[in-house]
Design a protein that fits this description.
Blueprint: H1 3-10, E1 13-18, E2 23-27, E3 30-34, E4 37-41, E5 49-52, E6 62-66, H2 80-95, E7 104-108, H3 114-117, H4 121-131, E8 136-139
Length: 140
Amino acid sequence: MSLMNIFDFAVPKISVDFTPTDIIFRHKEKTIRLLPIVYLSKTDNPPLVLDVGSQTAPESEHIEVHIFSSDKIDTPGLKKEDCLKAFVMHALKELMPRYFIRPKILINQSALLNDRLCGYQEMVLKEAFLSAGAMECSFI
């Protein structure tokens, strides 16, 4: 077995599936299902992430960002790209609390986002996953 094969064997692999309502992350036997929502604090500047992917909003004053909707964010300086990155970082940490080798990401069904991201879904998702710590991001 070559060194490259050993390295490839050691690299964590995460599968990400998009459905019309949620995003499913899988690594080995662990699966998490999240809604594409980020809850941010309304009182902090810059806003802090309070929760990600939950159906239940936090009780504190918050901003609810649907990361793939066409709605604008009313908070100056806050971009949906930043919310998507926070969403991905949260999912990766929940799926793999500790890892020494950055994971490879395999994304399925990203075409479901075509209407919302106008054909740029692969570019947007790849940037979010790579900036959140992934080693590599590919699409099927």
